[in-house]
Fold this sequence. Notes:
By secondary structure, the chain is an all-alpha fold. The protein has helices at 6-27, 36-75. The protein is elongated.
Amino acid sequence: MEKISVTDLAEQYERQYNIINAKIAGLRPLLYVYTGEDLYLLRSRIKTYYDMATECRITAVSLRSYYEDEQNERLH
């Protein structure tokens, strides 16, 4: 089994963040087209994607911070 570094893992989360944001951007124009229940479901889907993107971003930043903290401890 291949080991994945903390930085690689942070990059994977960052890529997922970008992919999910692209999905959100693709769905936003539909907000002006849909009505009623379809609009409600679209907003719900966008909210779910937004929450997922936020979690990916938080995780990526946390992993990078962990790596930087670890690097700083080695220097001191």
